[in-house]
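dumping this here before i forget
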Amino acid sequence: MKKLVLTVSLVSLLAHGAFAKDVHVTVVHMQQNPGELKLMDEMARTYEASHPGVKIDIRKFGDDYKTTLATSLQSNDPPSIIYSWGGGVLTDQVKAGLLRSVDGKISAETKAAAGTVGVDAFTRDGKLYGIAQNVSQVVFWYNKDLFKKSGVDPASMASWDGFLAGVAKLKEAGITPLAMGSKDKWPAAFFWDYLAIRLAGRSGMEAARDGKNGGFAGPEFVKAGEEFLRLSKLAPYQKGFEAAGYPSASGTFGDGKAAMILMGDWNYQESKTNSSSGKGLSDEQLGFFTFPAVASQKGTERDTLGGINGWIFSKAAPDEAIDFMAWYQKPENISQFAKAGYYIPINPKAADSLANPFLKQIAQNISASPYHAIFFDQSLGLSAGGAVNDVSAALTSEAISAKQAAQDVEDAMALDR
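structure:
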């Protein structure tokens, strides 16, 4: 999914017989799309040109982002600007004293551009810790050619039972229904997340967080696992899915070797980047639909799963780091990422620059959503979020019962309450 970090540290350099203080900004990330990386680098050079003494370097962070970040934040040289999904992980970081509040350092204009939802997403105990940048939604991307070949009508998948019937029909036609990256775990979690959101609804999710009605071991969450197992029992995933990470699964879909992938809007670009050709599916071959309605659900099919992502600052971050990120978020800068279709900016002025029809529709879906749930591995915090990822990967392999999966999440959540 989108994963990016900026770090800033101060060093002294000997120049012309005197010490000159420079600010070195290191961009550390997991983003793979060459076009976006090129644009990021261009932004860095532009900022440097108007800010003498500030140097920005771009390099890749480790693939295990969360573990690497947790270790780095507690080191003697922590990153200064951190790409964040907010949620419970942000709460944990604030509680641990690892972050710097940016109250009084962020202009009213910058906060207004993020909107109330964006500001709230990065506020804890009345203090602002970051700047929201982009929003995302997880959807079913599908290959129109493979659907046509199998005789499956996407409209028939508006219900979960219809979806499962479509999966079975795709298999009968000799087509792999779903690309899955179980090795990375979080791609599998989108299924459990969405099923829980549909079945429990917003009120049920909030009650579970508080430990009410059995918490995450309650009946709706057990049912989510049961429905997930109904899917896995159809053996819908590509060969070797348990050892495949997201890049591999995304490439499988981009190569036309699977009919669908449940993934965020970023997959539009990533499936091309990770395909064998580097081009992936054409827009004419590509479509998407939202997660189906589930029988007896307490939520609605308009409820969405995704993120409100942005930037937070470590306790070691200097003022220059905050200034750089505020500049980076200006609509004239962020709109360039929107035009290229790399993500959906939370800033409405920048989002108006979206040219990609798929991303435009997803932006409208999020805007119309009565409940936009944040990825569980972020919103529930490190312990419970990690448990969701673990049990979801196990459910793809039918290696755990629905009841045990729900209990494992509840046990982990209980540690953080």
